[in-house]
Amino acid sequence: MNRRSSVSSTADLAPQPDAPAERRPVRERLLASADELFYREGINNVGIDRVLEHAGVAKASLYSTFGSKDELVRAYLEGRHQLRITRVEARMAKHASARDKLLAVFDSMAELLSTPGFRGCAFLKASAELPANERTQPVCDTYRGWVRGLFTRLAGEAGVPDPAPLVRQLVLLYDGAAVAAQMDGDTEAAKVARATAAVMLDAAIAAKKTTRAART
Fold it and tell me: pTM here?
């Protein structure tokens, strides 16, 4: 396994416009700079002045747009969440069955982990840096709820009668792939997680069929 060099922080970022930075809206410039710096160097390690210098905007613009650093962090995390949703839904749209859609979530993770500059889960990092922050933690909680809810819905649609135990296992696989990629440089982690998820999902579906057969 080879550890990738992290030269960019665009792991969960949408492509940026080609327009010169000074012609882009102030909010967009601030968010792009915050995303790059917060993700690459850590939220607590990056002060407002660094973001302002990187974005090329005045301090008054930041406070008139976001009000505080906490609000900028919240917007950064919300942007990451929305892009994650978009990427996962794009992967799922390529498949018809709930089973394949569920496994496509891991395909999306594999794509993310192979992106230059991947440095781990932005939400895990934010939770570690800003525990119990009343402005930013709810965004992390929303993301976690989305992951669990997505797996729960797809597992149920795939035919798992009681998805809860399986969902806990799938979330652990999903999280573990990101940690292995970040800490071990394991670029195949998501593929291993996907293969494991397929075995577990198929076993849960088969158990339902076996139970039905026994009752008849």
Answer: 0.85
